[in-house]
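Data deposition worksheet. Section B asks for the primary sequence of the deposited chain exactly as it was used as input, without tags or linkers unless they were present during the calculation. Section C holds the resulting structure in token form. Section D is free text for depositor observations; keep each observation to a single sentence. Incomplete worksheets are returned to the depositor.
Section A, Depositor: J.P.
Section B:
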Amino acid sequence: MGGYYGLVFLVVFTLIPARCDESCGGRDGRAGDAGAPGRDGYPGAKGEEGETAVMLEGPVDEAVLRRLKGEAGGRGQQGVMGPKGYRGHLGAAGQPGEPGRPGAEGKGIISGGQGAQMARSAFSAIRTHNSYPGFGRPITYGPAVVNTPEGDNKDFNEATGHFTCRVPGVYYFTFHSVAKVSMCLNIASQALTNSLGFCDYNRNTDQVLSGGVVLQLTAGQKVWLESFRDLQTPNELRDSRDKQIIFSGFLLFSNPE
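Section C:
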């Protein structure tokens, strides 16, 4: 069996490190990256107080004068009032005050020296007759529903139909009537130049008629209610069906002496 044999060369290199003396130098490295900012230091100690400034003679720097505290000036004029502010919250209720002194004794308001408790007058009366009330005559009534004051001092007389003023003052009078025929009624008084007439005409149903007046009366003047002729027919004057007439009045306030 045949073959080729080659030569094998083995080269061995032996690396021997070289020795370097101080004359051998390498290159400098590059600067490193900047580090993060450090924390603030502690506050320094308070400095000593400086000497008091001395005003020098001659020209003075205006900037220095502005820094120096001067004496307080005089009070200036009051400025213009500003706009009204918002309304504040309601405060707590205060303590009750001391009772006041008694007032002066009241005076009598009617003749005879009678006291203020007599300054009252009111009435309300109803006519109970079914017949048509006569023209031009005071209407009379049954017993009054209200008649104050009562007894001999009453101001309204049901039998005569007259109200006679006892307490001078301002009064209100009113009436209401219900009938199935035409009705005309006057409020008459010595305090009126002319009577005040009111009418309501038949429409074959219950007719309602009302009127009123405020009068200034002096003592002794009378007020009454009466019927008057207008457009009523003879048949209406003879009518005997139910009729109601209510006459009322009262004192609003008395006149001072």
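Section D:
Residues 108 and 116 are 6 Å apart (CA to CA).
The longest strand covers residues 169-179.
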